[in-house]
Amino acid sequence: MAPANMEQNVEEQLRAHRRKDLLRFITCGSVDDGKSTLIGRLLYDSKMVFEDQLSTLEQDSKTVGTQGGALDFALLMDGLAAEREQGITIDVAYRFFSTARRAFIVADTPGHEQYTRNMITGASTANLAVILVDARKGILTQTRRHAFLVSLMGIRKVVLAINKMDLVDYDQATFGRICAEFTAFGRQINLDAVTAIPLSALKGDNVTARTSTMDWYEGQTLIEHLENVETIDQSRSAPFRLCVQWVNRPDLNFRGFSGTIASGEIYSGDTVRVLPSGKEARVARVVTYDGDLAHAVAGQSVTLTLDHEIDIARGDVLASPLDPPAIADQFNTTLIWMSEEPLLPGRSYLVKIGTKAVTGTVTSIRHKINVNTLEQLAAKTLALNEIAVANIQLAQQITFDPYEKNHETGGFILIDRITNATVGAGLIRFALRRSKNIHWQAVEVDKSARANHKHQKACVLWFTGLSGAGKSTVANALEKKLFALGRHTYLLDGDNVRHGLNRDLGFTDADRVENIRRVAEVSKLMVDAGLIVLVSFISPFRAERELARNLLQPDEFFEVFVDTPLDEAERRDPKGLYKKARRGEIRNFTGIDSPYEAPHNPEFRIDTTHVSAEEAADLILRLLNERGMLGGQA
Questions:
Q1: What does each C-alpha distance from 242 to 279, 294, 400, 544 come to in angstroms?
Q2: Spatial separation of the C-alpha atoms in residues 103 and 22, rounded to whole Å
Q3: 253 neighbors 294 (Cβ within 8 angstroms)
Q4: Model confidence over 524-544: pLDDT tens digits?
Q5: On the chain, which terminus has fewer CB atoms closer than 10 Å, C or N?
Q6: Class of 235-319 per CATH?
Q7: Cα 603 versus chain centre, distance
Q8: Is 58 helix (H, G, I), strand (E, B) or coil?
Q9: Residues with Cβ < 8 Å from 448, sequence gap 6 or more?
């Protein structure tokens, strides 16, 4: 009977855990403020450390601990070898624990500024933030940074945990001074619901139990506050949203739309609107792995079937028709830059919002924000961990809500299209009015008609290579041959364009990106006019050349890599630019102090150390004719 009773007790305990309210919270603050120690103490005092873990903790505390052989609770969290060696937290560590009243998932986030991006990850799902402050040091820059990020991410419940009170002799005046300073800063960033608690994570004072060391403090302990704080799940009271993750069609008799309910609730029989199409249908079934439900709420993963067929794809949103989300393609946003490589306005990124992924660009940075002073600063680019208000433009319209109303349909990430790395996170504030006022005007004479009239296929020949490689020479020779054949062309040369269209741009990375973006858009218009466009630009970055390619149809863009080694290009130096760059008279010169990213798979590769410009032009001309771009008359 004992095994049966034991099994029954385990089942009862699991059911009890499932019935508990769950609070997700993060710990953040400056480095070495005691975040890991605090969570370790919570786990230890709540009896959530197993015997084998305790044994390991005791051994590790003796070998790599920082408490002279006594239990070092931080080691329960700092699991990475690099963290133990450096004594800091790098990654985001998640831990589950529970008390008799509530269950918790806590994210221990890094304190170093360079890991701010990790802190954003931890904050994205939190209901509450515990911001730690070392009582000896007071409010630091990183304290303000994390408080500002907490506010940005929409967390309104904050605990100001003033830690290491034992190291200031539990001084009440120190506690009061830090509280006053943080409260004043909190008002500026809309953090009004702040609860301050003096504690010592190492000693256990005011963590899970009161002590006589701070009899002047009459508030709750940290665990009492976490157990009793009211957190309203706004996602459940918000209008219904489900971002379609998967069109589920296992056979001809079933077609459902799967995803996690982002907000609101849904009943079988409810009407939903599909966006962006705007079509409506009734929910026939709410299907889950465990069977059909009559009702589902935010956070549940479900498959909805509808009462009639509608064309729905991954990335579409099912929403309440009474309060639907908006649709736009240009937005005012708050951006948090998370990459070592700087943000370059005009560069094409992949923008992922919900389950939808579209290409987009940051069109302008309105201002960046000094997190310490909240001062608004002018900026053309963003570096790692910088925060800014910026406008973005997407290649197509998307369904969205402002972030303050719905985190799931108002938050997005930026992904580098070359490396596939997440480089930024953003929060949509509002759509720009131009999104509704600008529409595509249909015309009757199209690209195909214009090209056929000229007896050719419109395309772009994009010449790229180092300065002095011979791009303009080859492009010029090719255009003369095309002109002699009666073809309609236009040559866009880097130097010539900078005398007019791009005369306002310099040679920083950001300006180079904008330079190529503008030329790519002009090239697209010229292809639409039916022309063969020859573009001769250094265009040093693959991302911008890929942007130009993606503006056109697959058979309309030909990358011509004029592959001349740096030493040969510098030997030629037709304009004397390399000599000036070597003397320091020219900054950001490609090949010297600014990088050139060679093409991986160009359509044409020309080695000008082995062929002349005339021979290169003949080679390209022959290949264009073979591909049918010249109407078969070359």
A1: 15, 16, 12, 34
A2: 5
A3: no
A4: 999 999 999 999 999 999 988
A5: N
A6: mainly beta
A7: 32
A8: helix
A9: none
Q: Are strands 557-562 and 459-464 parallel, antiparallel or unpaired?
A: parallel
The number of helix segments (H) and strand segments (E) in the chain equals 19, 28
Token pair for residue 68? 């002279």
Tell me which H or E stretch contains 451. Answer: helix 447-453
Residue 103 CA to residue 106 CA, distance in Å, equals 10
Please state at what angle helix 141-152 crosses helix 172-188, rounded to 10 degrees. Answer: 50
As its CATH architecture, domain 2-228 has: 3-Layer(aba) Sandwich (3.40)
d(CA 418, CA 90) in angstroms, rounded, equals: 26
Two domains, one topology: 2-228 and 447-626: yes
Q: Look up the CATH superfamily of 447-626.
A: P-loop containing nucleotide triphosphate hydrolases (3.40.50.300)
Neighbours of 265 (CB within 10 A): 18
CATH of domain 326-434: 2.40.30.10
Catalytic residue among 30, 98, 539, 594: 539
User: Beta strand pairing status for 271-275 and 265-267?
Assistant: unpaired
Residue 548 token pair: 């130009």
Q: Is 539 a catalytic residue?
A: yes
279-288 and 241-243 strand pairing: unpaired
* Distance between CA atoms of residues 143 and 161, nearest Å: 11
pLDDT of residue 373: 81
Closest to 194 (Cα-Cα) out of 166, 164, 163, 162: 162
pLDDT at 111 over 80: no
d(CA 197, CA 207): 9
| Whether the predicted pLDDT of 54 surpasses 60 | no
Distance separating alpha carbons of residues 268 and 296, to the nearest angstrom? 9
The pLDDT value recorded for residue 83 is: 40
User: Is the whole-model pTM more than 0.70?
Assistant: yes
Domain ranges, ordered by start, for the chain: 2-228, 235-319, 326-434, 447-626
